Amino acid sequence: MMDDTSAAYWRATLGLLVKVLVIWFVISFGAGILFAPALNSISLGGYPLGFWFAHQGSIYIFIALIFYYAKKMGDIDRQFDVHED
């Protein structure tokens, strides 16, 4: 790959990584700890929403982020023609 293409590829890759990590942090730390008192006024399945995010929701979001990351990384690889077929 050329230098400009390499830089664009890594910029796209790091941009995706930062987005995923920010979402993961906001959901796991924010919703489960920081915003839990505010979220506990809402109930989901009979449990306060802050409790649910701390124990179940963050795991579901993390798994969804894994699939999202894999899909988007495949798209970036195909865009820069570094994919494996």
TrEMBL record:
Keywords: Membrane, Transmembrane, Transmembrane helix
Signal sequence annotation: none
Pfam families for this protein: DUF4212 (PF13937)
All residue ranges annotated as the Sodium symporter small subunit domain in the record: 7-83
Sequence intervals crossing the membrane: 12-37, 49-70
Protein name, as recorded: DUF4212 domain-containing protein
